[in-house]
Design brief:
The complex is a heterodimer of chains A (about 600) and B (about 200). Helices cover about 65% and strands about 15% of the residues of chain A. A five-stranded antiparallel sheet of chain A has the order 2-1-5-4-3, with helices on both faces. In chain A, helix 3 runs antiparallel to helix 4, helix 4 runs parallel beside helix 5 and helix 10 packs across helix 12. With about 200 residues, chain B is α/β, with parallel strands linked by helices. Chain B has nine helices and five strands. In chain B, strands 2-1-3-4-5 form a five-stranded parallel sheet. In chain B, helix 2 packs parallel to helix 3 and helix 6 runs antiparallel to helix 7. Classes of the chains: A alpha+beta (about 600), B alpha/beta (about 200).
């Protein structure tokens, strides 16, 4: 109970104060009284001695002259003498009453008594009239003078002694007051030490807990929930505070424990998921510092000799993504990156996505490397197979075609109608088969070749001119006209593989011719839609692409329903592949003015 | 097949067809055989070299892709031994590398398979009897190793005809190339033109 302690402490000080004051007052009063008594006593003694002298002088004055003269008959009136004698005796008693034990004083008083007694004896002798003779009278006078002188001297002594006593009393008082000062000083010192004691007690009881509390709050702020404050003594005002504080700390500890636990669980789940993913996964912070990687990623980086780091190729893509703040989610296995591990080739398709917490405070990047080596291998196998098979079929087919052509020439012998019909039909099949084989070869070329573009600055104008020239004959066969527009503009060169670019243009123009009505017009127009691309559009006046086919015409082997023309539906697919490899664009524009427009955008060199 | 040399007034031509495909050999021979033209065939490069060593021919149709020894191998050996016989190189596809190598060995006639009989005869005629047209003349000059003359002739034609323009560009590039130049660099420069070099490419 701090309040009680405070009260007792202050009470002690007040009591001390009071007692010091009382003691001082008492001592002072006592000293004054004693000094007063002494003074009075000594003064009375002095006064008495003085009076005694006066009285003896008066007596002598009255009676001694008669002694000096001739003896007379008449008896002297002794009334005055008796009166004064009584007074002297009173004064004598007063001096007696100063019951001082001083030896000197006692000696003087005794001698004074004897002197007084002798003095009175002399006068009694006088009054008895015993000294009638002259000699006797002179003797008596002499005696009385001596006694008077003695009395006077003794009185003088008494006064001196009384004065002395007065002085000695004063010095005694002084010494006593010194003692009193010491006593009061001691009391003051005692009070001071009690006050100091109370101060330290108060500090311990009041300030220390507050300071402890502050320290503990500081610790908790720093995350040290393990701390508990020491319980103060029973009944302290701070016990409530401390126990409340400790409760709070333990509550926080429990909460944090729960948090830690759920975090641990979440972390565990995350790790389990990451470990279950067979593909290497990197989780990176916004600064692309690695936050977490899964065992597959660890193994990969180890095998690549870049333990714990992102392989450089991927870092580059990630940097690009960061610049654009965009995901990088390629689907095509051909965009996979090649990694050589122990002389073996592995293809990993990097999928990079940016993630953000709901309140957008946390963000980062996740990189998943999808191993597409097997897919790539199968794809390559397929491409090779198509290529090989096509070549193998094409070689004998050229022979067959040759023979059929020769038969149809009828140089050496005429064919009858039936024979001619059959050979013609066979020849048509043969031509169709050749077209198909060529397309398949194109496909395999596109699939294996788009990654090996020979990019160079190329004049789009030349490319367009080549295509226009190449299809002049085919267009003429369909009574079509090929028109080029935009040639006159001085467009910058594009960055392209000229052979591949021609292939795309050829394909678009060939399609346009195929779908044009007789007597129509195919327009090849160059333009520059923006600073980065040069555009070539191919317009035809055909029926256009059916709405539900529009999204699919660039797919592999897709052919719009109801098409009678030959081909296996690879042209646009291959074109798209080529444009993609050029980082260009290909597309179908919305139909305007009954014109179908296909366009390609090629990056400017 | 059934040559009838007695009927022609012009002296007969001897043609050698080299192809590993029997049907093609047959077809080529049948297509080219005429009243004054005799066609012989060889099934492989080494056989062709043998035949060429034994007797002389006016023109040879040579397949590029053959087992054992390919067309370029045959060309190189022939040229190495000083045989400047005109050669028409037939192939399904003309690679830049092959084209440049062939041209440097003075082989300037290419046919892309499949070939129509008419193309065969046309190319044979243009080689054996180059018309007064500048283009065949230029090609003949090139074939004979006079590249400068060929380039000069083609330069005049280049603006009129894409075929001539292509040839002009390719020959010029080859002409300007020094022996120690990187072949790949040249191929890169003439690559877009190579597909058009074949006699029947515009068809």
């Amino acid at each position: 109970m701090l309040r009680l302690k405070l009260f007792y402490g202050l009470l002690t000080i007040i009591l001390l104060l009071w007692s010091v004051g009382a003691a001082a007052l008492l001592l002072m009063g006592d000293t004054v009284t004693r000094f007063d008594n002494r003074l009075r006593m000594d003064y009375r003694s002095i006064d008495a001695a003085q009076t005694m002298r006066t009285l003896t002088a008066t007596i002598n004055t009255r009676y001694l002259p008669s002694l000096a003269g001739a003896p007379t008959e008449h008896v002297l009136d002794r009334t005055l003498y008796d009166e004064l004698k009584k007074e002297i005796q009173v004064k004598q008693n007063i001096i007696h009453s100063d019951g001082s034990n001083d030896e000197r004083w006692q000696g003087v008083v005794t001698r004074l008594d004897s002197a007084v007694a002798s003095y009175f004896e002399g006068y009694e002798t006088f009054f008895a009239g015993l000294a009638q003779t002259r000699g006797d009278r002179e003797k008596l006078l002499q005696f009385q003078s001596t006694q008077t002188q003695r009395l006077t001297d003794l009185s003088e002594n008494v006064m001196t002694l009384a004065e002395e006593k007065l002085f000695s009393g004063a010095s005694q008082l002084r010494s006593e007051s010194g003692k009193n000062t010491l006593f009061v000083g001691t009391l003051v010192l005692l009070g001071t030490s009690v006050a100091a004691l109370i101060y330290f007690q108060l500090v311990r009881q009041l300030v220390d807990p507050v300071a402890n509390l502050r320290r503990s709050i500081e610790e908790i702020r720093n995350g040290n929930f393990e701390l508990t404050m020491p319980e103060p003594g029973q009944g302290s005002e701070f016990s409530n505070v401390v126990s409340a504080f400790n409760d709070m700390a333990s509550e926080l500890k429990v909460r944090r424990g729960e948090n830690d636990e759920s975090l641990l669980r979440a972390n565990f789940v995350n790790r389990a998921i990451l470990e279950a993913i067979p593909s290497p996964v990197f989780v990176l912070g916004d600064d692309t510092g690695i936050v977490q990687i899964n065992p597959a990623a660890e193994q990969l980086t180890e095998e690549l000799g870049v333990t714990g780091r992102l392989p450089l190729k991927i870092q580059r893509i990630l940097d690009e993504c960061r610049e654009k703040s965009a995901h990088f989610l390629p689907e095509d296995p051909r965009e996979a990156l090649l990694f050589r591990i122990h002389e073996e080739e592995f293809y990993y398709l990097p999928r990079i996505f940016r993630f953000e917490s709901e309140n957008a405070t946390e963000s980062g990047w996740a990189v998943l490397l999808h191993n597409v080596s097997r897919i790539r291998w199968l794809d390559d196998m397929k491409t090779n197979l198509i290529s090989t098979v096509s070549h193998e079929i094409k070689t004998p087919l050229t022979g067959i075609r040759m023979v059929l052509h020769l038969l149809l020439e009828e140089r050496s012998s005429q064919l009858d109608e039936m024979q001619k019909l059959m050979v013609t039909s066979a020849n048509e099949d043969c031509e169709r088969l050749l077209v198909t084989l060529n397309t398949l070869l194109d496909l395999s070329r596109a699939e294996s070749g788009t990654t090996h573009l020979a990019l160079a600055p190329v004049s789009m104008k030349d490319s367009v001119a080549r295509t226009a020239h190449l299809y002049q004959r085919a267009a003429a066969a369909g009574d079509l006209e090929i028109v080029t527009e935009g040639d006159e503009n001085d467009y910058p060169q594009v960055r392209a593989d000229p052979v591949r670019l021609d292939e795309v243009l050829n394909n678009l123009v060939s399609n346009a011719i195929k779908h044009s009505p007789r007597g129509g017009r195919v327009t090849i127009r160059q333009s520059q839609p923006d600073a980065d691309y040069l555009r070539v559009s191919v317009f035809d006046q055909g029926a256009g692409v059916p709405d539900d086919s529009q999204s699919r015409i660039f797919e592999r082997f897709y052919r719009a329903p109801g098409q009678k023309s030959d081909g296996v539906g690879l042209g646009l697919f291959i074109s798209r592949e080529i444009m993609r490899a050029h980082e260009g664009r290909i597309g179908l524009r919305e139909r305007t003015n009954d014109l179908t427009e296909f366009y390609i955008d090629v990056p400017i060199a | 097949m059934s040559p009838s040399p007695d009927k022609g007034s012009s002296p007969g031509h001897r043609v050698l067809v080299v192809d590993d495909e029997p049907t093609l050999r047959l077809g080529f021979a049948y297509a080219l055989t005429g009243r004054t033209t005799v066609v012989e065939t060889a099934a492989s490069g080494p056989l062709a070299l043998e035949r060429l060593a034994d007797s002389s021919y006016d023109i040879m149709f040579l397949d590029l892709r053959m087992p054992e020894m390919d067309g370029l191998g045959v060309i190189e050996r022939l040229r190495a031994r000083g045989d400047e016989i005109p050669i028409v190189l037939c192939s399904a596809a003309l690679s830049p590398n092959a084209a440049v190598r062939a041209i440097r060995h003075r082989v300037v006639h290419f046919l892309l398979k499949p070939v129509r009989p008419a193309d065969l005869r046309q190319v044979m005629a243009s080689v054996l009897d180059p018309a007064i047209d500048p283009l065949p003349k230029a090609l003949e000059a090139a074939r004979k190793g006079d590249r400068e003359n060929a380039i000069r002739l083609l330069e005049l034609e280049a603006s009129k005809c894409r075929y001539a323009a292509c040839w002009h560009r390719v020959l010029k590039a080859i002409q300007e190339m020094r022996p120690d130049d990187d072949l790949a660099g040249l191929e890169e420069r003439v690559r877009s033109n190579l597909v058009l070099l074949a006699f029947n490419s515009a068809a």
